[in-house]
Amino acid sequence: MCGCMHSSLDQALHLEGDPSLSAAPTSTLAPRKMPKSISISKQLATIKALKKGSDLEKAIATIALIFRNSSDPDGKLGKATAKNLLQTQFRNFTEGQETKPKYKDLLSELDEHTEDKLDFEDFMILLLSITVISDLLQNIWSVKIMK
User: Fold this and answer.
1) What is the pLDDT of residues 3-32, one digit of tens each?
2) What whole-number distance in Å separates Cα of residue 92 and Cα of residue 139?
3) Rounded to an integer, what distance in angstroms lies between the CA atom of residue 71 and that of residue 119?
């Protein structure tokens, strides 16, 4: 797909959390500013722009942080890590999809991905594709929004 190291949103989230960081890509040897041991909710709380952020903005920021915390120093996810995230962090969307042809196609595409790793854009496309075909989305659409 795009092959970029981090999306502009990921960069913005990263920079917003620590004003001392520059927009230039960091060395792959540079330590991360937010260690993996810090919870996502605490990481979100350090991002000034999200203090009054919308639910949608916080949802996307959460995805970006989970991706970042799971990615390698180059900002990419290995295929096994991506599949593990789908099973552990996205299981309500993937449950019951295993026998569906569209879901099988998505996982086949992941396995056949020419690179061994996914960047943030690839991962977001994968999540959105699974969401669109999931049974859970149908349940979400049926939730009453008016009294």
Assistant:
1) 444 444 444 444 344 433 333 344 344 445
2) 11
3) 9
